[in-house]
Amino acid sequence: MCGIAGFYDPHGGFDRQNLQHMTDAIAHRGPDAEGHWLEGPVGLGHRRLSILDLSTAANQPMTSRDGRYVLVYNGEVYNYKQVARDLGLQLRTTGDTEVVLEALALEGIQAVARFNGMFAIALYDRHEQSLLLIRDRMGIKPLVYWQQGGRFAFASELKALQALPVALELDVQSLQDYLFLEYVPGDRTIWQQARKLPPGHYLRVSARGVQLAAYYSVLSHVQHRQALPEQEAVALLQDRLQQAVGYCSIADVPLGTFLSGGTDSSLIAALYQAQSGQAAHTFTIGFDAPQYDESNYAEQVALQLGTRQHTTQLLLADAREHVPSLFAHYDEPFAVSGILPMLLLSQVARRQVTVALSGDGADELYMGYGYYHWWARYQRVSRMGWLGRKAVAWLLSQGDARKRRAARVFDGPGTDTDWLHVWSQQQDMFTQGEVGRLTRRPYTHSTLAADWRAIQQLPLHPWEKISLFDIRHYLANDLLYKVDIASMAHGLEVRVPYLDHQVVEHALSLPVSYKYHAGVQKYLPKKLLAHYLPNELVYRRKWGFPAPVAEWLNGELRYLVDELLNPEHLKRQDIFDPRVVQQWVQAYQSGRNPYHGKRITALVFFQLWYRQHAG
Fold first, then answer.
1. What angle (nearest 5°) sits at the alpha carbon of residue 143, between those of residues 139 and 147?
2. In what order do the strands lie in the sheet with 151-155?
3. Which H or E run includes 284?
4. Is residue 168 part of a domain?
5. Among residues 525, 594, 556, which one has the least CA distance to residue 267?
6. What CA–CA distances, in Å, run from 527 to 227, 231, 534?
7. Which residues fall within 8 angstroms of residue 424, CB to CB, at 6 or more apart?
8. Does 61 sit behind a cis peptide bond, omega within 30 degrees of 0 on the bond before it?
9. pTM, whole model, 2 decimals?
10. Which residues contact 227 (CB under 8 A, 6 or more apart)?
11. Domain annotation covers residue 190
């Protein structure tokens, strides 16, 4: 796990000092070694977090045996030994970097089909003078780039691009998308001139320009097979996950697992503990607000499994210290309260281990979210027509705060992309109309609309369509982004067994009844987890991973609202309509609608980001 950065500039505008600034900006991603390589139009930089082959021979940038290719690479290819055997590679090191390099040198982009892992790769061909960028299938590892007038730069994080002497302007479309979705979606970034390389894509840069293409899509792996008997299906899932956990356990450094006490992380911890042969380190964050704290469940799971449990409490004092500086780490506005506990969890885990396994991805693969039910309700109400849906929304709006929240969900625009509205409102973000009023520009969400329409055409159950949409967007650009930035801020590598592409493809082949059955979501994983834990720990209410940031912003952290959302500041900034912002602030602080807290959080988090990166 590392940080990479570099450029392709035939005009000679970037130099070694620029490359140094880029790697300095992401030094936290690789505290163990640093390397640079420059030749002709290209500069490649690397910061190393040593996981496999801890010797200096495995440092990067690395040049191929024949001298033609130079590589910088972030991630892990877990099956590297098998790839080396299959290709008959003669190696000088014992890690995966050289295998990735020589496989690409031998087979080009086709070699990626052999790789099982997570990766962001930059490979320079010295003969062709072309630069190849590759991002893993699921988007576990980030890769962003900037281009303008034939000049090109790339990095693991946007802050490395910000270290270059280039213009980066706020993208209003991305800001509006953020206010609607809580994250910046698709291949966009918060900057007009920068983009994300999408999951499963590669990009080639040369004197002929920039060419972007896909090498993998989950949509091509949706194929229903004949349903196995339940016992066989559970056994097959166990086999797939055991292999994935085994791969993710390959390391030359200490390793542990995150443990929330929920299904996803508990199953990964159970499988890892069963394979490791010794008491594994497990890490949990608790809260001093009981309605957010599930650390008790995690400790019960750890006791049942026999792990070495480490529980840390996130206190209000931690919030006062860390919330104002959250966006020193996060390069984009990101309205997810879980970033604070994830940063603290990563910091605590890094004291004991260098690698941690997480349970991310299971909710998307096995239909674990509550908004699946909201979409089903929305569709039922929509059968009454536009007027009937509006009537339901109006009736609910006359009730208590909970019913008023539901009213917002049902008050959709009535288009073929209403799912995006339902997702937004279930997450308590702003509606499209509210975003337009806030930013004083009309807004209709379009960034993800085309993909939702394409998925809608597939002959699948409605919940399968939502699952695919989440895998392609929410997972890569929200959940995985959250974990990558938080963990790498502390030099911790996080691996995600559920996102082994073989596990993903197996999940996509399962019938809906093995994901949601008799009122139980994540049905098959819970059946497997019941082999390791008692039912009272398996079949319990889902919590998620929030922190009480909204409550803090109406209490001890209210000074941030007063400072960052006051009308005079907003007038000087000239991004939001100050009167509209004040209406939201007053409605929340008065206590009339507690669900407005997420929206206030989104505005405050934007301002914290803006102060750090754009102010």
1. 135
2. 33-39, 42-48, 2-8, 151-155, 144-148, 194-196
3. strand 281-287
4. yes
5. 525
6. 16, 9, 11
7. 180, 181, 430, 431, 432, 445
8. yes
9. 0.95
10. 233, 510, 511, 513, 514
11. yes
What is the secondary structure of 129-150 as a DSSP string? TEEEEEE-TT--S--EEEEETT
Q: Return the residue matching tokens 């339940």.
A: 230
Place of tokens 């973000």: 429
CATH code, 134: 3.60.20.10
Structurally, the chain folds into a number of domains equal to 3
Quick one: tokens of 582?
């004040």
d(CA 345, CA 149): 42
Residue recorded with tokens 């490359």: 19
Q: At 108, list the tokens.
A: 């080009």
Residue 96: half-sphere exposure toward Cβ, Cα within 13 Å: 26
- Mean pLDDT, the chain, rounded, equals 93
3-class DSSP assignment, residue 8: strand
- The reported pLDDT for the residue numbered 319 is 81
Return the percent helix, strand and coil in the chain, to nearest 5: 50, 15, 35
Beta-carbon contacts of 15 under 8 Å, excluding residues fewer than 6 positions away, are 38, 43
What is the percent of the chain where pLDDT is above 70?
98
- Provide the pLDDT confidence category of residue 149 given band limits of 50, 70 and 90: confident
Claim to verify: residue 84 and residue 63 sit in the same structural domain: yes
Question: Taking residues 319-339, what's their average pLDDT?
Answer: 92
Q: Does 501 share its domain with 517? A: yes
Amino acid sitting at position 115: F
Query: Are residues 298 and 192 part of one domain?
Result: no
Domain containing 123: what range?
Answer: 2-216
What is the distance between the terminal CA atoms of the chain, rounded to a whole angstrom? 31
